[in-house]
Amino acid sequence: MNVLIVFAHPERQSLNGALLDVAVSALHAQGHQVQVSDLYAMNWKATVDRDDFPGLKTTDRLKVAAESSKEFTARTLTDDVKAEQEKLLWADTVILQFPLWWFTMPAILKGWVDRVYACGFAYGVGEHSDSRWGDRYGEGVMAGKRAMLIVTTGGWPEHYSARGINGPINDLLFPIHHGILFYPGFTVLPPFVAYRADRTDDAKFALLERDLRMRMSALTETPPIAYRQQNGGDYQIPTMQLLPNLEEPGVTGFALHLQNRNK
């Protein structure tokens, strides 16, 4: 299996860096091929601007989606972006690894998504009509590939529980799981989350290492998050609202988009 890890932490000697070493070691031990995009080491350019579109005339107004689509089709996107797109096509499984900063991913990783997920590559694909709203949310270029998150956070597990002040961890990660991974077609696995990162001693790290090695060994067997597919018959088109007969009493928000909740 081919595995791409997109790593976003500025300190290689961090807990995140140690967990990266564990993941790579565990995957290699199983005979998998691994590529790591270490964004800070690569000095990854995080902002989308006119320099991303070499074919754009200086007198033209920048319309990011339209220009992204045009230059993706013409294969004239910048070399760094094309290299990451090739890695995504190569990979059977993609892992995004990062510290949870201000309830989301670091800016450099969001910038990787912004630039690499070009129109025509990760979105804007498939038929758009009165009966179909493109190939997305379970379909698309990444369909058939698996993806997951490895996340560290300074807070306690209780802080990210159903009654925790930070909100449930799965709710905080929903925009990444559902929007960044499921949208272009990935099958999304549950995240691996290491809490209280700055309070990790040798004994705690040994447990984290054991658990992460187990997760890496079960990538192909781990049941995915059961998101509803856009074109699977659960949503009205073109409003993209869940069909009334599929609603459950008391279920609102992100949980609406999980199927077979009572089975």
From TrEMBL:
Query: What InterPro entries does the database record attribute to this sequence?
Result: Flavodoxin_fold (IPR003680), Flavoprotein-like_sf (IPR029039), NAD(P)H_dehydrogenase_qn (IPR051545)
Keyword annotations of the record: Oxidoreductase
Question: Which Pfam families has this protein been placed in?
Answer: Flavodoxin_2 (PF02525)
Gene Ontology cellular-component terms listed: cytosol
Start and end residues of each Flavodoxin-like fold domain: 1-205
Give the transmembrane ranges. Answer: none
> What's a Gene Ontology MF term here?
NAD(P)H dehydrogenase (quinone) activity
Q: Does the keyword rRNA processing apply?
A: no
Question: Into which family does the record put it?
Answer: Belongs to the NAD(P)H dehydrogenase (quinone) family.
Instruction: Tell me the protein's name.
Output: NAD(P)H dehydrogenase (Quinone)
- Organism the protein comes from: Gluconobacter cerinus
